[in-house]
Amino acid sequence: MFFPLTVRDFLDRAVTVYPERIGVVDEPDQPAPSWGEVTYAELGRRARSQAAYLDDLGVPQGARVAIVSQNSARLLASFFGVSGWGRILVPINFRLAPAEIAYIVEHSGAEVLMVDPEIRGLLDSVTAEHTFVLGEDDEAMWATRGEPEPWEGDESATATINYTSGTTARPKGVQLTHRNLWTNASIFGWQTSISDRDVYLHTLPMFHANGWGMPYAVTGMGGRHVVIRKIDGAEILRRVERHGVTVMCAAPAVVQAVLDAAKTWDGEIPGRDRVRIIVAGAPPPTRTIERVRGELGWEFIQIYGLTETAPLLTMSRMREEWDDLEPLEQARLLGRAGAPAVGVRVMIDDTGEVLAQSNHNLEAYWDNPESTAVALADGWFHTGDGGTIEDGHLVIADRKKDVIISGGENVTSIEVEDALMLHPAVREVAVIGIPDEKWGELVTALVVLDPDAGEVGEGDLIAHTRQHLAGYKCPKRIEFREELARTATGKLQKFKLRAPYWEGQQRQVH
Ligand code: AMP
Q1: Is 435 within the bounds of a domain?
Q2: What is the distance between the alpha carbons of residues 385 and 353, in angstroms, rounded to a whole number?
Q3: Is residue 167 part of a domain?
Q4: Would you say residue 287 lies in a domain?
Q5: The total number of structural domains that make up the chain
């Protein structure tokens, strides 16, 4: 018997098995009225109501519904209310500049656009057929209404499109199907032991690869979601204490923030021997892993993957065979990206690039057949990361693609270079990442000025990029040069430009 896998399965199970249980604790400090505590029965009702409301608006199945929001219960509900009845959710990074968001809304062809009240100004320049400010004019969307139009379910249908800064100047829309999300969430949830006793803290932005799939996995098991909006180390510890949090996902920069806050925490660190923290986005330093285990007493799990792979490809988690090793050696082993998850195949090609096959690799890039063909050439997904396999475990050693990962978010060098080139005083520019304690990698621009440019300083150029790019993409450091290393054909030699900053580093990614 064939029965389509759809993301609504996760919600339906929670509503059936745990209707009275508090499924979601919304952020109390929202600019929109907080939903407070919501049972799974109520979450299911609100998701159905959203779907029925979209029916009434005449938004058909297959239509795109964009949402730009910090973490919130409304965003969590939309993962089900939109995709669960055959429409496509486009969760957009709220940190992007209005011009970047406008591009995504237009490229995805979104008919509906929902925005967080804090960024309502966006609606002055970005528009769609139906627009809403969350918590203000969307009340009717969540109010009790009739049943939505039935959707028979199709696991090959696209459930979400997640725009990611990849190797091109413009972001690409990663098309993930219900089957992609279902297999990722189930395998991820299984391998991190998600159960009905889990309390999941949303330290990861939900827009980023759909909160890596935890919104689905935790719901399916009937665990509790605790929504957190602003990421702050001490606040994370307070929420862990207050809500009995057991599991969270985070980029290494967030882990660092928690470790910093722990230094001045009064009393015992909450969650000792209870919390599992799942880290990805960049290779975490061995010392950080040791400190998570030693100073916080939390279990450390690492995963590796990309938005394009929904994202789970490999996982590093303690195993029995390592029990008697020294903590430092255990941390070193956990510092590898890990072994392939169930159903994932990983190999390294002749050039050292990591290739992957799995049931949760993207269907395609939305409306971009050229990039799709390149990424999926020969039936393998090309990650753009360089790696080796050590004892069955993948180690990410460098990056083939021209992408900088700063604070867990991707920044494409080309888009920063494009923005800088718009400044009349800039003649040439190369943007590179350099290792940084806090951000992992620091967006750094090497600039050759036009000799007739007059006085132009670092601050002027950074301020200029702020008009075009999200704050986290703007260079944090600018160095002025007489010239930039190029090949005979005029191509920038980024590896040469990067070399002095990366000398002595074990890996070429940080
Ligand atoms: P994104 O699509 O924004 O999630 O970014 C995916 C990229 O993040 C990958 O291609 C890697 O370069 C990087 N990445 C993710 N997880 C890890 C990890 N555990 N170790 C090293 N790099 C990682």
Answers
A1: yes
A2: 6
A3: yes
A4: no
A5: 3
CATH number at residue 358: 2.30.38.10
Largest separation between any pair of C-alpha atoms in the chain: 73
Name the band, by pLDDT with cuts 50, 70 and 90, for residue 495: confident
- Mutate which of 396, 401, 411, 441 for ligand 1? The one with the most ligand atoms within 8 Å of its CB, which is 396
170 lines ligand 1 (CB under 6 A): no
CB 385 less than 6 A from any atom of ligand 1: yes
User: If you measure from the C-alpha of residue 320 to the centroid of ligand 1, how many angstroms do you get, rounded to a whole number?
Assistant: 27
The domain boundary, picked from 151, 178, 205, lies at 178
- Which pLDDT score, from 0 to 100, does residue 490 have? 65
In a domain, 450, yes or no: yes
Q: How many CB atoms lie within 10 A of CB 371?
A: 18
Angle between helices 73-81 and 40-57 (to 10 degrees): 60
60 CA distance to ligand 1 middle (Å):
34
Radius of gyration of the chain (CA): 23
Q: What is the pLDDT of residues 410-450, one digit of tens each?
A: 898 888 988 898 898 998 899 999 999 889 999 999 999 98
Of 146, 178, 210, the one marking the end of a domain is 178
Q: Tell me the CA–centroid distance for residue 281 and ligand 1, in Å.
A: 4
147: left (phi over 0), alpha (psi -120 to 50) or beta: beta
Residue 3 shares a structural domain with residue 141: yes
Query: Which atom of ligand 1 lies closest to the CA of 384?
Result: 10
Q: Is 116 in the pocket of ligand 1 (CB under 6 A)?
A: no
Determine the structural domain holding residue 389 and report its residue range: 345-399
Average confidence score pLDDT of the chain: 94
**What percentage of the chain reaches a pLDDT higher than 90?**
83
386 and 452 belong to one structural domain:
no
